[in-house]
Amino acid sequence: MLPGVYRAEKKDGTVYYRASITYRNKHISLGSFSDEEAAHRAYVVSGELLDGKLSDDYEPGIPLPFKKWVSLINFRDNDMYIKTPIYLKERFFYYYFAPEDYLIFDSDDLFYYSTHSIMRRGGHLFVADFGMQVNILSRYGIKNYAVKGRDFIFVNGDDTDYRRSNIRVINIYNGVQKKEQGARVFYETKIHIRGDVLVGRYPSEWEAAAAYNKAVHILSRNENSRNYTKNYIVELNADEYREIYNRVNVSAAIYEFADDGR
Fold first, then answer.
1. 208: exposed, middle or buried (C-beta count within 10 Å: 0-12, 13-18, 19+)?
2. Label partner for 187 (CA 20 to 30 A): which of 39, 72, 138, 147?
3. Contact 204/195 with Cβ under 8 angstroms?
4. Tens digits of per-residue pLDDT, 39-58?
5. Residue 94 forms beta bridges with which residues?
6. 155 burial class (0-12, 13-18, 19+ CB within 10 angstroms)?
């Protein structure tokens, strides 16, 4: 076998070749290849990259996946091998998808993203966690249905910068949206039934969140009502929440839908 190459077989007897390299006492798998020569090229290129003999720029024809390329450069420069395509900086890191396509995260998120690969689908970013697809925005308390610019913003305007200081959540609770009319600030609550139905407008976010919960309770009278996720207001104790819940009013439309047996 050529240096860095190992012959292997699949369960059906198909032969393939694996490449690996040892660097700073770390044994690194470089991937699987259909022929011995391709696996050897991956081994040679990896060694040249780790020795600083190649440009860090990833170009077509390089016999390594881009993600592996990033992992090797990070290991060389920062003495930490990470399987996901992360490059470390002093207080943050880049998570790469392609040479000019990356996200920025706080160092505090390193452990999570070093063990969870980020995937893209339909404009959403998610990871596989405990068998479920989890939107990465949920790590900031942002709901799946949240709208950028309405429910949360990127403070510096860069929507690739996921450092926590750069993400500001505007609307925390289900069905609640902050509104401004001139100098007046209020919170509007809507609930989706057959389209969005207005529950009411309230002077505080907590009242608006409690009103949503009250609407959910009222709608539960209707056996055709869907399941809704209620708001949990962590800042209120049981007595404070009960007082607000009993006091807030909801629109007549909620009662009409509740009594509608269709």
1. buried
2. 138
3. no
4. 999 999 999 999 999 999 99
5. 87, 104
6. exposed
Decide: 178 and 171 in contact? Cβ < 8 Å: yes
Q: What is the structure's pLDDT at 260?
A: 75
Cα 219–chain centre separation = 32
Strand intervals (E) in 92-183: 92-98, 101-106, 119-121, 124-129, 132-135, 152-154, 167-169, 176-181
d(C-alpha 258, C-alpha 215), whole Å: 9
By the 8 A CB rule, do 171 and 146 touch?
A: yes
The helix/strand/coil state of 238 is: helix
Which residue has 């339909």 as its token pair?
Answer: 122
Q: Which of 59-73, 91-105, 127-141 is least confident?
A: 127-141
The whole-angstrom separation of Cα 108 and Cα 112 is 9
**Structure token pair of residue 99:** 């040479």
Residues 120-131 as b/e (b if ≥16 CB within 10 A, e otherwise) read eeeeebbbeeee
CA distance 133 to 127: 6
Alpha carbons 94 and 97: distance in angstroms, whole number: 10
In tens, the pLDDT along 204-245 reads 999 999 999 999 999 987 765 678 889 999 899 999 999 999
Q: Which residue has the tokens 């690739």?
A: 160
- Closest C-alpha among 168, 193, 207, 202 to residue 256: 193
**180, 188 Cβ separation under 8 angstroms:** no
